[in-house]
Task: structure prediction
Amino acid sequence: MLNYRIAGLALLLAANLSSAADDWRIEAAGIMQEITSLKDNPDNLDADERLQKAIDLNYEYNLLTSPEFATFLGDPRYQDRWSDNSLAWEEHQNQILINNIEVAKSIPRDRLSESNKLNYDLIIAQLQQQVDGFAFGDKYLAISQLGGPQQDIAQILAIMRPSRVADFDNVIARLNGVPNIIDNAMERMQKGLEANVTPPKVTLRDVAGQINAQIVDDPSQSPLLQAFANMPPGIDAAQAEQLQQQAYAAYTDKVKPAYEKLLAFFENEYLPNTRESIGMSDLPDGRDWYAYRANTFTTTDMTPQQIHDIGLSEVKRIRAEMDRVIESSGFEGSFDEFTEFLRTDKQFYHETKEALLMEYRDISKRADAELVKLFGHLPRLPYGVVPVPAYAEKSQTTAYYQPGSLEAGRPGNFFANTYALDTRPRWEMEALTLHEAVPGHHFQIAIGQELEDVPWFRRLGGYTAYVEGWGLYSESLGEEMGFYQDPYSKFGQLTYEMWRAIRLVVDTGMHYLGWTRQQAIDFFIANTGKQEHDIIVEVDRYIVWPGQALAYKIGELKIKELRAYAEAELGESFDIRAFHDHLLGAGALPLDVLETRMHEWVTEQKNA
Result:
């Protein structure tokens, strides 16, 4: 799973503004004036020049108005403030999105170069998708077990990586801005209560603990102030002490009271009044809302029922493969007995967190050495394997990936969950590493960031079906890379593929077809060897992130279909390295655009 995704960035991101001084507002208004003037084209630019100017202006606009975006990129500007997460600004931004659709449509598409026609189409589609989504209630869902101010603030501060006095001043300024972020989140939560749009109560059981983890008596023990624990040697002792004291004062006077306020509101007002139901269909316009999310995440026009049926078919196919693996292992017993053996036998579990991380790192290094067999182009950005932060581990999924930045000197990171070691079996580790690190998320995202011939919103954006589809497809490359040599690891790979097939069934089941949470859990248990703790965490993730889990299997199926097509058409001249390089060579794309691109490549190879 990709975390902290800069996804769906378009000509104008639905960015948020800070509550600091108004200088940036004046500057932002000036940039927007320049963008709007492109409709009249006073400089008589040709179509390609107009589109490029719009793209360039919007890059600057997004850095200015989304300072966390600049943090992600490693850009040093605007790092002393947060985005404005208020409802008022989000409503304003929706109007700006509508205006920018008009700007984009004023550029004559037929006069654009072929490459810019694709950029133009992606821009229009992404802008319209964001505008269509504003009609629903996502803006009221400001907190869940997977995210919210109790996690997001810490994540941003953790990737800032200050090294100079000015950098630490920025962190302190952001600490002082935390109360405004939390007040705006609480406003969204309150409006959500009034609109009957909240996460299900059952999924929020650990959130109070997550908030409480940010409340400590000793500021030096706060997860938010980790940067101040070991000051760089370039900062003298007197300055370091002064910066630490400023940070501690900001925490004591601003941050801690804000989280205490959030905790009281959450426990006394919000949680008691959240909904008992779990399905999105129970929310206002819920069925249309879910259909919109399904289409958005899969980049297809498939209905929830069609996706559900694909899931059932895939579950049946993968289950047959799992049965064959059990038979080849020599195990004498039923499927349930085999999965119980995998869940409980001590040989499959590490006794220490350090040992778990060490094996993940070993698998990663072995994977690195195999990449040249399957890819002609490798990314420059390195990656690391690190544990999920303690404040989030209990409710966080098994693993996720956080992108890095060459400009910021920050590696990509594969976060492995070390909570409850008896729920982290070794037989799943190879597939998980290939998905999150290489050749999965790190590989694909780092290559995308390093592309030189595509605009910024394609290098830094993403379509979930492509990104997660590639991650799941990467797991299937394990055999070609020398992994899955014993039946348990092979069963683990099939378990993870089954996991994604089950998502199609239970996500649509809960949000469209009226399934209960227990039905989803039972269906999961019946068809995988995963631990019940993992299953519950996963099902609760689908409940609060409707539609996202559909992207994995739908994307993987399309990539496998394209590979089979290329192999059949090209025969002995099929080059797996060239196929993969071309598949990754234009950044993340909607599945229909990807299909067109790869079919054109096959035609070119045949004619070469």
